[in-house]
TrEMBL record:
Lineage of the organism: Eukaryota, Sar, Stramenopiles, Ochrophyta, Bacillariophyta
Keyword presence, Protein biosynthesis: no
Residue span, GH18 domain: 33-328
Alphabetical keyword list: Signal
Protein name (record): GH18 domain-containing protein
Keyword Signal appears in the UniProt entry: yes
Length: 344
């Protein structure tokens, strides 16, 4: 018998390297498409155990950007995290999958603590360390920053500097970082490169009266596409980091200040509107619209979709006590191989 040029040792090494390459390919092609949902502290009455079976990620909304964090009366507190831990255990038992849990800092009406952090290095260090301690205490996956303030140019600049410092500190501790953005908010490429995800709030995009009827919907698909393209065209952050927001509520076409949750609309209609997306002047995303947006997100190679918010959805026995829109977003096909999750 003749020997090859590789020799036995070389053949073993070659086989091992080939195995690693194959394993890497399989893992990269089995990363799940994100189906996430925000859960405010005031919506914890939902059946969270059943809901998380249709989620890959849960975003807990929220705490203000203050060093006290959970010690304040508002808004999330320790009892909420205990409920989440129970839901994670239930998901693990039923699906052998873990639930990625994020904590949102800020949000509408809860961003007053941010300015005190801007430009104060010591205060930032204290705050970020407390976040890390909280992540470790509750085994969280990441921190989601959502600063919704009327920025001056200086405040915007200071917020970007804060995000850079936060990414450095949190990443060093193994914590993922996301940022929530409205379509009109900009994100410099230097910061977009650092964050792991961008939660694009592709709703509340209101147009002036006199537009075409479909343009009166605050989350109309054409506007959603434009919002995504704006981020992608600016290369900040790029498609693979964007998680597309889908609203679980409608706004009135003649008075956008009037809002109804999807659950309220279904109750009033006394039917599930699979394709109908208007009701007595309210425009909203029906299940068919949600499926269309999910298909768009997959085709555009986005990271996934999220729902704002889970408590506004309509849960029914027919949908296993999960939300109708959430079920439409997942369509029972979680953990597929159609997207790439951002890495640290």
């Amino acid at each position: 018998m003749t020997t090859t040029g590789l020799g036995s040792a070389g053949l073993i090494i070659f086989t091992f390297v080939a195995f690693l390459l194959l394993l890497s390919f399989v893992q990269s092609n089995n990363t799940d498409f994100v189906v996430a949902g925000y859960l405010p502290d005031y919506r914890f009455y939902i059946d969270l155990n059943q809901t998380v079976l249709d989620l890959t990620d849960l975003l807990l909304f929220s705490v203000d950007a203050k060093p006290s964090l959970l010690s304040d009366n508002c808004c999330l507190h320790a009892d909420h995290f205990k409920i989440v831990q129970q839901a994670r255990a239930f998901k693990q038992k039923e699906q052998s999958r873990d639930l990625r849990v994020w904590l949102t800092i800020g949000g509408a009406g809860r961003s007053s603590g941010f300015p005190a952090l801007f430009g104060d290095t010591e205060r930032q260090k204290t705050f970020l360390q407390k976040l890390i301690d909280l992540v470790k205490a509750y085994d969280l996956y990441g921190i989601d920053f959502d600063c919704e303030l009327p920025f001056s140019k200086q405040e915007y600049y200071d917020y970007m500097l804060f995000l850079r410092a936060a990414c450095d500190k949190l990443h060093d501790a193994g914590v993922h970082v996301s940022v929530a953005l409205h379509p009109h908010q900009a994100l410099p490429k230097a910061i977009a490169t650092l964050v792991d995800r961008v939660h694009l709030m592709a709703y509340d995009m209101l147009r002036r009266q006199g537009a075409q009827p479909e343009a009166l919907h605050h989350a109309e698909l054409d506007q959603v596409r434009k919002a995504v393209h704006l981020l992608v065209d600016n290369d900040a952050p790029g498609a693979r980091k964007i998680v597309l927001g889908i609203p679980a509520y409608g706004r009135h076409e003649s008075n956008p200040e009037r809002v109804k949750t999807f659950a309220e609309i279904v109750d009033e209609m006394d039917a599930v509107p699979d394709t109908r997306n208007s009701w007595r002047g309210f425009r909203f995303d029906a299940p068919k619209d949600v499926r269309t947006k999910v298909a768009y997100a997959r085709d555009a190679r986005l990271a996934g979709v999220f729902l704002w918010e889970l408590g506004q959805d309509k849960a029914t026995v027919e949908h296993a006590r999960s939300g109708i829109l959430l079920r439409a977003a997942g369509s029972g096909k979680l953990y597929t191989d159609t997207a790439i999750e951002p890495e640290l």
